[in-house]
Amino acid sequence: EAQVTQNPRYLITVTGKKLTVTCSQNMNHEYMSWYRQDPGLGLRQIYYSMNVEVTDKGDVPEGYKVSRKEKRNFPLILESPSPNQTSLYFCASSVQGYFAYEQYFGPGTRLTVT
Amino acid sequence: QQQVKQSPQSLIVQKGGIPIINCAYENTAFDYFPWYQQFPGKGPALLIAIRPDVSEKKEGRFTISFNKSAKQFSLHIMDSQPGDSATYFCAASDNQGGKLIFGQGTELSVKP
Q1: Mutation to test the B interface, candidates A27, A43, A90, most B Cβ within 10 Å
Q2: Greatest Cα pair distance in chain A
Q3: Is the separation of the CB atoms in B56 and B68 below 8 Å?
Q4: What confidence category does residue B94 fall into, taking pLDDT thresholds of 50, 70 and 90?
Q5: In what order do the strands lie in the sheet with B20-25?
Q6: Smallest CA–CA distance from A90 into chain B, residue
């Protein structure tokens, strides 16, 4: 089954404790992206990667890092999480950046930082 | 700043009604305008998309209307059903750069 998977689905952590949310796609897509979803703000793009060699900032990159060492994986790293990073996070992928309008989303990771 | 503005925030209609969700954008570099549907506990899924050189696009009961001069576009759901109850997001993409900008979302409830 073609899909984007994220782990963990739920995470409660404390301020300052480094964490990684994994994302993997099995569709051989070039493009991958991370979003956070907050009530009243919609989805906001954190980082995106056009291919294994190119990664760029979205609209809200502060406090986040990403890594694209392999085509299928695109982990999101919070080196020192803060309470304002409590949110619902989605990973997504697309055939290529030119088709960024058509993205396939994972099931989401709900993160709580206390 | 919100580059794509969506309204209303929530919408309640009766079964068979035609809910309309509106969006406005600012950046004329956007070159594709998709709508996503999200059910509770799920990730968003592409519903329908339109290019700026097309004024209207229909897919089943879903229609996008696009007004390039006004920089506005809207989603109409014909003969709405309770199963259409979901959150709808408009978006705008800059395909050359790989960015996808979402509106704030509209929570639609279709009553039986």
Answers
A1: A43
A2: 39
A3: no
A4: confident
A5: B4-7, B20-25, B72-77, B62-67, B56-59
A6: B43
